Predict the 3D structure of the following.
Amino acid sequence: MALKGEGKGPLPPLLEQYVELCAQYPDYLLLFQVGDFYETFGEDAERLARLIDIVLTRKTSKDFVTPMAGIPLKSADTYIEKLLAKGIRVAVADQVGNPKVEGLVNRDISQLITPGTVTEARLLKPDANYLAAIATGDGYGVALLDVSTGEFRAAHVYAVSSLYDELRRYHPAEVLLSPELYNQEAFREAFSKRFPVMVSSGRFELTTAKEVLLEQFGANHLATQQTDAVSRAAGAVLSYALETQRGQLPQVTKLERYDPSSYMQLGEVALTTLEIFESQRGTREQSLFAVLDDTRTAPGRRLLNAWLRHPLLDASQINKRLDAVSVFVHDGVLRADVRRDLYKMHDLARIASRLAAGRASARDLVALARSLRLIPHLQTLLATRPEPVLQALLTRLDGLVDIHDQVSAALVDDPPLKITEGGLIKDGVDDVLDDLRHSAESGRTFIAALEASERARTGIPTLKVGFNGVFGYYFEVTRPYYDDVPDDYHALQTLKDRQRYVRADLRDKEREISRAEVAAQSREYEVFQALREVLIHRASDVRDVSDALAELDVYTALAEVAANNHYCRPEFGEVLEIHAGRHPVVERYHSFIANDLHLSTDARLVMLTGPNMSGKSTFLRQNALIALLAQIGSFVPAEHASLPIFSTILTRIGASDDLAGGRSTFMVEMDELADILAQASTHSLVVLDELGRGTSTFDGLSLAWAASEYLHDHAKAYTLIATHYFELTGLANRLPAARNYHVAAKEEAGGLMFYHQVLPGPASKSYGLQVAKLAGLPSEVLARAEVLLASLEADRDTRSSQISECIAAQDLSRLTPMDALKLLHSLQDMVHGVENNTDIPETTSPEAHQQTVVTSTSYVSATSLSREEPS
């Protein structure tokens, strides 16, 4: 690395050291300790100042000047967190020599911190923090590693849409792309819009990847029996993490291969439109997760997130979860007692990870002991219940009493942050340590008594014994008593109105105390290391207990939500029967009208009509969310719910475009519809809101009509469709399993009233003008629209009647080809209103008048659409 700066002379030694360390880690932003600051120089300084908005200064030496920017050591975490949030990888170089020694202080890299490999508790949020890698090979291999807990998962998918779906579920903080993917510019650009990309060359080579996996897990481990794509991805992510963790990942003990098809499929679109993890605003607030997350522990929060990512497909497994939730729903006292204990629990999963890696601090071990102290009471609480699922949890919570006893006996209740400065170990734990402490304390006692004895000896009433980090211990005498100072006092420092002195025996005692204190600190560290070394072998036991506590936390959290919000336990069968269903998020913020839904193989397609703002979209989403909640093992917002087990929930809701990707709103809609039609089956729940609205009326209506027929006839999926195309309500007369429903609304003296009730049958009208009035459109526009609407509806009815009468009057068997052609031209003229358009009210311009005439034709031939092929 060449350092940007001015001057012709050689770099100062400090900057040479900086450049050397930068060259070792070219992909990282180096924070270089200089005293009480972490500094950067040259272009890195300019970059740092720009990234975190700090002042840029200059480093000036005799022959060289360069930009410089730094952050205080004491607030480094705050700035590092900002850098990680921007996707910046950070290398921290700390001073490893004594700064009091003359000459250049040596520095070495102490930490490599990247967004996906953070392990420091102070930089981590409670959620999982995944590092992901993707490689190709007959599809895509996806590997996901949470270094902070040791969780390591991998899957093989065959389509890029499935790849996006998986990554959207896990929301990785950092993603490594294999070279063949990164070098595809179109793929890289499309991918980087969704996920943070980091490129890592050389880690995806298959042979190297397998060697890394073999070294981490051994020859017989499942990790060596993966597809090539999975092996490459898993090896790459493991290699990258090993680099940042200084070659050690003992907390990563297994690679779990999972099959996404073993769980309910929730695509990227469904996760977004149903607002599972984030609202449309991009925040956790007002999402389904926010409603359910009443967990008391960080591992519980992560487990709840995992359950939402992968709802179950096996009714027996779902019912086991529901059994546990049901216990806590109906036993409020037990629920409150358990949750009270869980609230005091620390993040045992991450403590176990740091313990396995040999990096657990004294505070980690004390937090572990405090948490384990609560387990006997939890065991007593669970022992009162006979349910098998709770008895299984009870068994998993056993066996860590000895860890609590060891830590509690050895460590003080509130240890310091650093483990090398003493103050960790209790008295009476180690005889050598006790002797050293006694020596240091004896010296301090001697000095404490020295002040009184010296006052008596010298007759100086203001004499004091003081201490500072520069001079050590000293005698201090005020000006009036300078003449009384004994000859064995040697002047050390003169201040404004006092002098400081030292004496040989005081120096000897100081050295004696210092040697004892340093030795005691060193011995404390040895004792702590020995304790930590013993506990390293129990890290897996701590992790197992953490898993059990997380499960207990999720059960009680779901029960708390269910009890407080009047949810019911769902049942499973072939028929979907929801009585008084509600939207779990919307009802938290607004008064809510509950609604019923019935779907079966004989009534599997619902066509829902009604005005805008009436709640059609909410009704569609709430039923999809109820199905999802049921399959994670949660109670659901309804008075009664019986549902099939759905393998996938497919949604097409709302309007959005992808201008950067060259896709219009309608193209996005068609892409989503194509995916739905390709995936839909008898085990799917399909939710469609406003199909075909981004194109002409005939095109949109035809597409919506045909898609509805396909879902009914071929996919046979349980389908909910909200539409403003009233022509689609005719499908109920053509499709045996189609039904019409509408959301009730009524015009009253005060305006349009929304009742938010879903009732059988189609809506009578769309109330578009009434909704426009509520939106505040100018009265002139509304008045003109009313006139045009009345005219268009009348014209539509007249022409439809004329066309029907014309066709009915023909004897088609007697028509010659020429007569048929003339008849067709005549009908076309009637449709286009060429011969009779005088009934359209005048408007402000001829162009607008003609546009109104043409638009009106959209209401005519839609009535003639048929499922049958033309003869």
